[in-house]
């Protein structure tokens, strides 16, 4: 346990160091010496605005993101007993929710009070309100600049409210700060109905959009600040969330009401919400296109000996996420990802020899690996040409797969004949690993998880399933005696995810048709797959699936989960779709990773039991807050 403590203390420090880029967005004001000094001039006011950004930057830490830690895409196999080792918050808190440890006495990922890897969003909103109330004070602040800064603060305030809505459903709306002499009744705020909360966020975003620049021109000085294109994309996501089953006609929460009788969830499904989301998606895509957003084009570093077309496609798919600030990334945060050594396998003897180089604890369950399509672009359980029944049988790497799987290395049949995104995003025993010092795909590094460098050296530094999130580790990163990381900033939204969100909205409004197929196929084309209609017609056991609204909805949901895998998005999508309970209804499975023989290694085992019921879709408010404010009502089922 001391080793784990040292590990995560080191991780916390590394995240702080990696976040030093663009420190102007990481300032947290001391709430505050005096408002007069905080807004004495334009420079001081801008510093306070950057303090408003600080919470946003902190959200790039994936440990804090329920969309990542509670999505079922990833598990952390070693629950920490000492919850004080990670900045005093317990860094595996999010992962622990899937172990059934969520509670209302001391909630995990508590964004209401700021405990257990949560951040106090009310404090963040308070800072935004202070800025908006005082931005008029500096006499040397030009009017055009003041409007832009106020728009940024409005966006941040909207986004912090939106984060709370996604977690808690109905929340109070804090449009202005209460005065210091506010009465007890005024302080005891009430939750507002879900629709009112969403409407408030959208109104703030609309106000912000009017005064934000479409793109950030001065990247050296302003990279990471909010543009109107980002705000439009977020508005599209907010409206799609409001239209989704969790918040639109959800009968599981229909009885939730305030103590004064006000109903907090809509009582009936409203299809017009999808119409609004569809329009917002179209406007966001148009804004992104006007701002030169486009699919990522691979940018290579030196030292490459040989690269096949297959490897080039894999690196292009991966690079769209890890090559920071590229045109495909609509919204990227400044803070950098600090967990590469958790996501990577040990692919060289040098990496295995350095006890602190690679831990590999971020483990991808087999169920997530099986989400990816076959090479025909349909689910593995639907492809009539793919041997689904025998996918766990052993098979040796062959010439046809030599850029994906080490030739003659024995792995499971399920790793063959898969789509390029599978090989770009997921690594497994026997898979080729282009990078980590090996830049020749005719003689590449590969993963030997049975009895080679990637095999678990102990009960601490191991991958519990035998699958790694390759997507999260750039090929330039090398682990060993002197590790060198290719650091990257965390993207919050990419162009392809916006395209698929638009396709989802179109299908909900109009059903299947050429328009919705077009947006799906644009994503699939980059992934090296044929069009959705033709792929299902030629290879699926359910050839008419894309021609029905329900069938196409299922396709879009799977396509979106594949395209945004490991990006901190799937957990939020699965919640708003009310599908996370289905995903987590079975335990997270992996291979028998401590076996040193191939036949023993490839035995299915339960890597982690999961606990997720209806009540877990929304988070509990801490019991103390309910007692302190009798106007609050606890989230239903808690």
Automatic annotation (TrEMBL):
Main subcellular localisation: membrane
Presence of keyword Signal: yes
Stretches assigned to the RagB/SusD domain: 328-638
Gene Ontology cellular component terms for the protein in this record: cell outer membrane
Keyword Cytoplasm appears in the UniProt entry: no
UniProt entry keywords in alphabetical sequence: Cell outer membrane, Membrane, Signal
Domain SusD-like N-terminal: start-end pairs: 119-217
Source superkingdom: Bacteria
Cellular compartment(s): Cell outer membrane
Pfam families associated with the record: SusD-like_3 (PF14322), SusD_RagB (PF07980)
InterPro entries on file: SusD-like_N, SusD_RagB_dom, TPR-like_helical_dom_sf
Family to which the UniProt record says this protein belongs: Belongs to the SusD family.
Protein name: RagB/SusD family nutrient uptake outer membrane protein
Organism whose genome encodes this protein: Chitinophaga agri
């Amino acid at each position: 346990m001391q080793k784990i403590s040292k590990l995560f203390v080191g991780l916390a420090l590394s995240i702080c160091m990696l976040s030093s880029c663009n420190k102007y967005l990481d300032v947290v004001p001391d709430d505050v010496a005096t408002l007069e000094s905080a807004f004495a001039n334009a420079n001081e006011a801008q510093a306070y605005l950057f303090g408003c950004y600080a919470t946003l930057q902190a959200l790039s830490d994936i440990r804090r993101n329920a969309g990542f830690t509670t999505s079922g895409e990833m598990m952390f196999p070693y629950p920490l007993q000492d919850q004080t080792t990670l900045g005093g918050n317990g860094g595996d808190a999010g992962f622990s929710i899937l172990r059934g440890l969520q509670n209302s006495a001391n909630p995990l990922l508590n964004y209401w009070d700021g405990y257990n890897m949560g951040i106090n969003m009310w404090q963040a909103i308070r800072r935004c309100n202070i800025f908006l109330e005082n931005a008029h004070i500096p006499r040397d602040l030009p009017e055009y600049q003041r409007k832009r800064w106020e728009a940024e603060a409005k966006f941040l305030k909207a986004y912090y409210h939106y984060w709370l809505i996604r977690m808690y459903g109905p929340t109070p709306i804090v449009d202005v700060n209460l005065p210091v002499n506010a009465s007890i009744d005024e302080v005891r705020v009430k939750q507002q109905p879900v629709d009112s909360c969403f409407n408030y966020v959208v109104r703030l975003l609309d106000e912000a959009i009017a005064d934000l620049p479409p793109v950030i021109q001065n990247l050296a000085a302003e990279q990471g600040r909010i543009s109107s294109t980002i705000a439009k994309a977020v508005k599209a996501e907010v409206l799609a969330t409001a239209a989704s089953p969790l918040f639109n006609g959800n009968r599981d929460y229909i009885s939730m009401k305030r103590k004064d009788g006000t109903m907090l969830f809509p009582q009936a499904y409203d299809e017009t919400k999808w119409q609004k989301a569809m329009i917002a998606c179209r406007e966001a895509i148009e804004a992104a296109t006007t701002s030169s957003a486009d699919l990522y084009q691979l940018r290579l570093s030196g030292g490459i000996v040989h690269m096949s077309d297959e490897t080039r496609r894999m690196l292009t798919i991966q690079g769209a996420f890890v090559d920071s600030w590229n045109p495909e990334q609509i919204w990227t945060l400044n803070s950098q990802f600090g967990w590469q050594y958790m996501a990577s396998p040990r692919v060289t003897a040098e990496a295995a020899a350095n006890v602190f180089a690679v831990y590999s604890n971020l483990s991808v369950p087999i169920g997530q690996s099986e989400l990816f399509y076959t090479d025909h672009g349909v689910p593995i359980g639907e492809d009539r040409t793919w041997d689904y029944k025998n996918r766990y049988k052993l098979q040796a790497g062959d010439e046809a797969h030599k850029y994906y799987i080490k030739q003659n290395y024995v792995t499971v049949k399920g790793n063959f004949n898969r789509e390029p995104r599978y090989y770009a995003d997921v690594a497994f025993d026997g898979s080729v690993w282009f990078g980590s010092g090996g830049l020749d795909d005719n003689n590449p590094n590969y993963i030997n998880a049975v009895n080679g460098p990637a095999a678990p050296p102990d009960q601490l530094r191991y991958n519990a399933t035998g699958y790694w999130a390759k997507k999260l580790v750039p090929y330039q990163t090398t682990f060993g005696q002197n590790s060198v990381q290719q650091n990257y900033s965390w993207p919050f939204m990419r162009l392809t995810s916006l395209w698929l969100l638009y396709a989802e909205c179109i299908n909900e409004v109009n059903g299947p048709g050429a328009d919705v197929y077009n947006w799906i196929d644009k994503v699939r084309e980059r992934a090296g797959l044929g069009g959705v209609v033709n792929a299902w017609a030629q290879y699926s056991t359910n050839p008419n699936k894309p021609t029905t609204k329900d069938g196409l909805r299922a396709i879009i949901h799977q396509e979106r989960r594949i395209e945004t895998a490991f990006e901190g998005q799937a957990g939020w999508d699965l919640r708003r779709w009310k599908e996370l309970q289905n995903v987590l209804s079975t335990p997270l499975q992996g291979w028998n990773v401590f076996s040193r023989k191939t036949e023993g290694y490839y035995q299915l085992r339960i890597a982690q039991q999961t606990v997720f019921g209806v009540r877990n879709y929304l988070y509990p408010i801490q019991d103390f807050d309910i007692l302190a404010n009798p106007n609050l009502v606890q989230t239903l089922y808690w």
